[in-house]
Amino acid sequence: MSTYLDPNALSEDELIVAYLDDELDATARLDVEDRLKRDGAFGERFEFLASNSVSMNAAFAALLDDAPVERMKSNLPVLELREQRRTVPTRRGFLAAACLAAGAVAGGGLVRLLSSGDATSSQDWRGVVADYMQLYSADTLSNLSDDPAMKADQIARVANVLQLPLTTQGLMISGIPFKRAQLLTFNEKPLAQIAYLDPKYGPLALCLTHSSTGKSDFQTEQRLGMNIVFWSSADHSFMVIGRNPPTQLQAIAAQLRPVLEG
Fold this sequence. Notes:
The protein is an alpha+beta fold. It is built from eleven helices and eight strands. Residues 53-63, 75-89 and 96-120 have low confidence and may be disordered.
């Protein structure tokens, strides 16, 4: 079975590192090489990523040396990328972790967030979201497909799994383009992320999951330099997270709440 990646589902950086890691088929490789001849900016980015020859093992070792290992084991989930089977990290493996396997989720695929413990509090899921959102940059989302049919399909998948009356139009935010919807799982429950790209503040996300904590009104907090507005209905928990000012996130949450709660 072929394990080649779909180039249409990759951001520009992911496409380059997939080429460098020999994860594209022959046709996609030729397309990259043709683009290198005619796109100067793409060529400069290619040279930058190609010249990054830092050992991944050394990079991970340095991170592990500084990591609060025991606290992470007891409190944080383990990230397992279904498509990532290699024992030695590659450039794309590292980028995929940062982008939550954007090639798969851009098409509605499923990425697993598996808990290392039994904790299921709402605080835990917000912490997980903040952990991966801090790795997002504008480049993570800017080159994703803007095909309306693809986006509608992504929203339909989320609506079906989360059992919510979601539509592409209902999730639009004025001045902040919707980029994709993706499904994940956390503690064996569906977790959906609706991602946007704010021209000023960068990546922003609406996240939602099933919950039995009961209704609660808007609350705010800050994690890893990002602001969060969160609340819950009788059956779901919601959060809006980004680097936007808290007042703007509250306004966005207030706009989306009637749509989310039906």
